[in-house]
Amino acid sequence: MTASANYGTTARTLHWLIVALLVVQYLVGWFMPDIHRGMQPGAPMFLHVSVGMLILVLILLRLAWRLTHPVAPAAALAPWQRLAAAGVHWLLYLMVFLTTMSGWNFVAVRDWQVKLFALVPLPSVALPGADFLARGHWHQLFEYALLGLIGLHVAAAVLHVFVYRDGVMQRMLRG
Ligand code: HEM
Ligand code: HEM
After folding, report:
1. What is the pLDDT of residues 3-34, one digit of tens each?
2. Distance 15 CA to ligand 2 centre (A)
3. Domain 9-173's class?
């Protein structure tokens, strides 16, 4: 499959849509009431789960699109930068996936009945080792690891805009 030189409209739209949803997701996650033993979830948690599952669907779509529509690394990048960018990009996919799956598992183990966006019942999926995963603070661990990676990714984008001035940022803005 030949790699194209730039990200197309679908790749860019999915990228920025996921960024916007992640901002909402962290804000709702931090501001919603803390979980206590035996409690039933309220509206903020329903919103968090709904947006989270939407992010899961979109990141899987984004991954499928990425695999079927490869894009060549920016020509301006040194070999070590290509390697670092590819590593961070794949880790971003992985951490979004793990963060959403661990949240879904948390809900499934507690047997909460959730309707996504008040419409679609959330399937209850118990992962292998589900109890273990739900006991530890895995969702929090993953969500902070993802935040650290996002920090690195955004810092690199800022460097490209203000220090290298090499047009890498433009690839995600105009294609
Ligand atoms: C990438 C997407 C997601 C992000 C960034 C995210 C982020 C967060 C944040 C910031 C919190 C607050 C925890 C804290 O105080 O540090 C939280 C809690 C929670 N989230 Fe998510 N979440 C995501 C996806 C999901 C999904 C898909 C579900 C369920 C289907 C979910 C279920 C929960 C639950 C049950 C809690 C409360 C229990 C806990 O703190 O572990 N999350 N999430
Ligand atoms: C303000 C925040 C962000 C900025 C400015 C930004 C910028 C960029 C830029 C310029 C690229 C293209 C890099 C290149 O040409 O090699 C890119 C790619 C990418 N970004 Fe972001 N990004 C941001 C947030 C995020 C977030 C939150 C995620 C989390 C999922 C993310 C995931 C990715 C991935 C996975 C790629 C690689 C594209 C691919 O799959 O091929 N970005 N980003």
Report:
1. 898 999 999 999 999 999 999 999 999 999 98
2. 7
3. mainly alpha
Q: Which residues line ligand 2 (CB under 6 A)?
A: 15, 18-19, 22, 66, 71, 74, 85, 89, 92-93, 96, 150, 153-154, 157, 168-169, 171-172
Nearest to 109 by CA among 85, 77, 131, 87: 131
In the Cβ-directed half-sphere of 27, how many Cα atoms lie within 13 Å? 6
3-state secondary structure of 121: strand
Query: How many angstroms separate the CA atoms of 172 and 16, rounded?
Result: 9
81 alpha carbon – ligand 2 mean position (Å) = 14
pTM: 0.95
Q: How far is the CA of 37 from the centre of ligand 1 (A)?
A: 16
Query: Mind listing the pLDDT tens digit for each residue in 62-113?
Result: 999 999 999 999 988 999 999 999 999 999 999 999 999 999 988 988 889 9
DSSP states of 10-26 as a string?
A: HHHHHHHHHHHHHHHHH
* For the CA of 100, the nearest atom of ligand 1: 27
